[in-house]
Amino acid sequence: MSKSLRIVRALVGCLMVLVAACAESPKHDRPNILFIMTDDHAAHAISAYGSRVNSTPHLDRLASEGIRLDRCFATNSICTPSRATILTGKYSHKNGVTVFNEFDGSQPHVARMLQRAGYYTGVVGKWHLTSEPTGFDRWTVLPGQGIYQDPVFLTPKGRVTKPGYVTDVITDMAIDFLDTRPKDQPFFLMCHHKAPHRPWEPDEKHRALFAGRQIPEPPTLRDNYDTRGDALRENKQRVFDDLTRRDLKIAAPLGLSAKSRNAWLDTVPTEATVISEGQSITLRGAELQSWKYQRYMQDYLACVQSVDDNIGRLMGELQARGLAENTLVVYTSDQGFFLGDHGLYDKRFMYDPSIKMPFIARWPQHIKPRTTSGSLAINADFAPTFLEAAGIEVPSDVQGTSLRPLFTGAVPSSWRQSFYYRYYHDPGDHNTRAHYGVRTETHKLIYFPTKDQWELFDLVRDPDELRNLVSDPASESLLATLKAELARLRRDLDDR
Ligand code: CA
């Protein structure tokens, strides 16, 4: 072989190595995305958000290593619609899931887009969108709401029962995903917990931890709804008046038929017999009310505690596999939840405890520890955030905005100053009413069309939303401004 031929071959060899490296490197540079979502976990049951009712050390650590968004909201505060918005980056009226209707999985969404761009995609846990998951290389999801103990899951190959407590089981599946995924692709994993959704069934360990614990009552537990509209007054999601014996875990008498037993359990108790210091005591009136709040919160918080433990476990496994540095980890919930606030449990209403979502993100290469942001974020922002993190162009019809500019802690000058909310059921579960409205950083305006009633709140002077200012003459110009802003948002979002 001549000297010049050897040089040419050596150069060609070098070139091939370079081409191979160029083809591989973008894949390896792209971050993994681990999206952890719980169901109905209120931000005010996370100590990083200043909880008065519990302590969540693992979520706190995640927040201290990354960013905590303090004003992140669901645009339609109920499970299925929020999940559809998270996947599509679009409001309910655009993705077609306004209530509990089936998600059309043929539409573009974040998992499909990431999969097409070379991500290995998976979802484990609660799905609740009726149609089978699309855009996922692997999926194992609970049918409907799923159950807490020994849950059944749906997979492409059929049903499978997994023994154990649902939060532990879903975490095990997430860890298995980390181990068995193809290692030459970045991954996108949606890890969706069932907890702490009703019927709030903790495992034994955490039940024991909260048994008998006295949980502080929220200041609005005995809200008299003065100045607010009929929708709040007529609601049936009150801790004192609507939690059933089943919710409160009161054991049914022996000897009832299945039908009678169910009817008995689904009744709201007017008294409860408890054992205190060895004595049997029957609670009624105010004592019964306080007991109901404690019972509800003990179980809810025990379910949350298992989530927190499992977040710690999953983060440890991520670290042990060398994945902690190049993985964007997000923790959120599909909406907030009333923890006795305004006397309520559940969600749906546009009041802050219901619409506020926890949002904690850890991504060491791009987010400095202990970053916080008070800019307005919405669930429609999640999909474009993941697309941008993966270097994928965000389609022009996506209505959310990537949250990446907030990850530095900066307040971008062009960031949204308000957002639009709409809840559709009327009358929905718990006798809720349809409503829509606008929230800014400082104010909120809500309209209940079937009642033709408005509610206006000053969130700075009245953060608990107790004084409806709609009839206050001093608020006339504010009311007009917010009505105009609401009309603008509806127009811009094409919700007619
Ligand atoms: Ca939910």
Strand portion, in percent? Answer: 15-25%
Q: How far apart lie the N and C ends?
A: 77 Å
> What is the average of the pLDDT values?
95
Count of DSSP H/I helices: 15
How does the helix and strand content classify structurally?
Answer: alpha/beta
Please bin the fraction of helical residues. Answer: 25-40%
Low-confidence stretches: 13-27
CATH-defined architecture of the domain at 30-201 and 301-418: 3-Layer(aba) Sandwich
The CATH topology of the domain at 30-201 and 301-418 turns out to be Alkaline Phosphatase, subunit A
Say how many strands there are. Answer: 18
Question: How would a textbook summarize the main sheet?
Answer: 8 strands, mixed
Under CATH, the homologous superfamily of the domain at 30-201 and 301-418 reads: Alkaline Phosphatase, subunit A
Shape: globular
Strand order of the largest sheet: 5-4-8-1-11-12-2-13
What ligand species are in this complex? calcium ion
What is the CATH C-level name of the domain at 30-201 and 301-418? Answer: Alpha Beta
Query: Measured on Cα atoms, how large is the radius of gyration?
Result: 25 Å
How would you describe what is shown here?
The chain is α/β, with parallel strands linked by helices. The protein has a domain of 290 residues: Alkaline Phosphatase, subunit A (3-Layer(aba) Sandwich). Helices cover 33% and strands 18% of the residues. The strands form five sheets. Strands 5-4-8-1-11-12-2-13 form an eight-stranded mixed beta sheet, sandwiched between helices. It has a four-stranded antiparallel beta sheet with strand order 15-16-17-18, with helices on one face. Strand 9 and strand 10 form a beta hairpin. Helix 6 runs parallel beside helix 12 and helix 7 packs across helix 12. The relative contact order is 0.17. The site of calcium ion (CA) has 5 residues, from loops.
